[in-house]
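Checklist before submission:
- one chain only
- standard amino acids only
- sequence pasted in full

Submission:
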Amino acid sequence: MSVDVGPTYPPVVRERRHLNLRLPLPDSSERCPRFPLPLPPSATSSTASAATASISAADLEKLQVLGHGNGGTVYKVRHKHTSAIYALKVVHGDSDPAFRRQILREVSILRRTDSPYVIKCHGVFDIPGGDIAICMEHMDMGTLETLLKNGVVFTEQLLAKICHQVLSGLEYLHAHKIIHRDLKPSNILVNQKMEVKISDFGVSKIMQRTLDPCNSYVGTCAYMSPERFDPDTYGSNYDGYAGDIWSLGLTLLELYMGHFPYLAPGQRPDWATLMCAICFGEPPALPESTSENFRSFIECCLQKDSGKRWRATQLLSHPFLSNVDAKSA
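Returned file contents:
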């Protein structure tokens, strides 16, 4: 199955290094919602959304496993009566309590969101035996990381289209005081139309007040901004919104370069290496053929001083995105 990735040059399979340096989720005193959870009314009315209003675990037929990890499994499922396809994330009853807290956090945020650039939740329910399941829309091309592993070349034209959608999602989330805190290629889902949606809100944060404290020690350390590694040097007032923008810039660079940009291809990462590279290293060198608009956009995202990073709304008006059709993005 092919994906239109732009007219410049054919996909080349690249060597891929896996960066999954997860940090532990700290104990939280936040209240967690109980199951089952009602879903908020959707702003869009359609036959599909109406059909999912009374969805239950018994209605779903498992077709295949989409992925494993962290005490859970994601399945591709089909509704027995409507034949609609969904993704079902099942958290096993005997999984790590910290991961179950992440799922509860994710559900809490998904229930608050209604954006075409954020993954949609169709139902949450208990499964006999103690498992918890979240029924979500299915994105048939997996994640941006999946495409990169499969050798897709991300041209500037394709990156601009992807970036406009992710930024639109971040603009929506930030306007609703939601900080993602773990934006990276594997947490951005994609379908055959190259529509992308932000997913995985397990370590996200809902800011209740302007000065609400936001623990920076969560997420995937490879995509952390300098102030998250070293708040003493880069500012103790952690700005989670600016942290999401840094992660976006790093994600775009990884897609463009084909490997994690702050390390050499094949280099084995660890905490100290990543901290030195991100906090004290020079910005990643881009090929000479890179356009000035893309260079400028990345620079606006990867300012080590978080106060100098552009906000999502500002970045949406950056010249790099000027040729993106917002209706088709």
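Reviewer check: The first strand starts at residue 60 and ends at 69.
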